[in-house]
Predict the structure.
Amino acid sequence: MAAELLKIHPDNPEMRKINRVVDVLRKGGIVVYPTDTIYGIGCDLMNRKSIERLCRVMDIKPNKLDLSFICNDLTHISEYVKNLQTPVFKVLKKSLPGPFTFILESSSKVPKILDVTKKTVGIRIPDHNIPRTIVAELGNPLITSSIKDDDKIKEYTTDPEEIYEDFKNLVDIVIDGGAGGNIPSTVVDCTGDELTIVRQGLGEIDL
């Protein structure tokens, strides 16, 4: 059965539609959604079967899955990371919500989810109402991965209808929240003595 293409208002997401997405995620579904950078694909962090399915869709082994979560706010983050030092917290507070992925030490709550010991986790709080409202309603973070394009010139697909054509037989819902961006988030590693930029993307950060 083909996925549903669901139009959701990017600034004022309709709760009826958000609840439809949350219902699908709770049942182990996979969803494509917009963020403040590029479109992402993800599932409920607490649903093992959907994580296994996401790995198959993305053609990656579960132990090779780089964990990035979409959280709703900073309080949400504290459950999944440990040793959140004050200087790091200050940077997070200043930068989020925003186009950043922060790599942090994972708490004991994370590895048990996948039976794979992951020492670090990437945390995202996108400046976009759709994914954050989904996460708030779901009550769990979304595991997230970027939608890549096979075209080497155009690395990320920005048109939701094009994404739908590519993924309609692999996922349950593709959310159309308008055109996406084509620059990924800036990745900041917070696990060393100093914060380092691993990938410069859309977000500008002063370290």
